[in-house]
Amino acid sequence: MTVEGSCADEFAEVRAEFERNFAERGEVGAGVHVTVEGETVVDLWGGDAGGRPWTEDTITHVWSCTKGATALCAHVLASRGELDLDAPVTRYWPEFGQNGKADTLVRHLLSHQAGLTAWREPVPQSGMFDWELMTDLLARQEPFWTPGTRHGYHALTFGHLVGEVVRRVAGVSLAEFFEKEVSGPLGLDFWLTLPEDLEPLVAPTIPASRGETLPKLYVAAMTRPESMQGMLLTNSGGYLAATDTREAHAAQYGAVGGMSNARGLAQMYRPLALGGEYNGLRLVADTQVPVMSSVVSAGHDEMLLAPTRFSLGFMKAVDSHYLPVEDRAVLMSEDAFGHSGMGGSLGFAAPDSRMSFGYAMTRMGQGVGVNERGQSLVDAVYRALGYRQATGGLWFR
């Protein structure tokens, strides 16, 4: 298998680990992209993209990496003074205040504290493709806990919650706002709704093989179908069985469903690694970046049943080396923020080193975070930047 692309000499270990992923870790098709000080230092790809070679233009489903794009849209509006993250959601979405949610703040939606981790009412077949239906269900739903008192990963609902606030403030859909204000100006290979003419570029995902043990989320869903974990996996209108269809690619979700590649992920985070601006384009104010990076919710996750940490819309590193592999999260530096996607894709910014990172692949891993293929690349990047690692844990200078 031939790896193509470019890699600066000082990041040669990243290329070596990328090649090892194919040779030893079961990688099928993937790409990795890294920028430092705004310059591309790693841009590699290789493998199979559904019966054809993975090229520099190949894109794939990056799952929950989509949440980073949605959160960024909210922060763009906040940076402009158009959205107050500390305001009640009802200021922008009046219908949302039903059934005990009147005091829910916008920040609760971003930090997975809203208590709306799954849909309670039955979602009809293909209902996930109907934005208005799904947001209406959430607006009238009772939360699983008092908003702001606990946190739990909003795996599928995050995009409809945050995305509807973006839509109400901006006056256009989440996907339109992202294209107009983020992906278009930055020239990203990243779509929240994929144009039909780009379908030939899509590499289909390969489901993870079942390991000896399952993440706690899946164990709870199978043993307690009435739990919110059970509702998450069984009440999505069939979405989880249709993610590789044209219908799914054309719809918008905001939590999952984004189509991109390693380059698109890393280059979306590039301005955020540089204080909010790249190449003359100011995406957010420099004062907004610390807001995006600061931890808001941490500890036991009511949905994942393992420790997690979140800022306002982004995943933070968790020193989770002591957890079983299937429940581990990505290990980054403390300043870093971004998002992983189910199966192992990842994008993030590390402002202290002015670095951004992206990794996307077809074969999914077993865990809820980044598996050894993606983590090996992250580790190699940090070593190249002169970082050290706590025993099996977070990276530091």
UniProtKB/TrEMBL annotation:
Pfam families: Beta-lactamase (PF00144). Residues 18-373 form the Beta-lactamase-related domain. SUPFAM superfamilies: beta-lactamase/transpeptidase-like (SSF56601). PANTHER family: BETA-LACTAMASE-RELATED, BETA-LACTAMASE-RELATED DOMAIN-CONTAINING PROTEIN. This is CubicO group peptidase (Beta-lactamase class C family). It comes from Saccharothrix ecbatanensis.
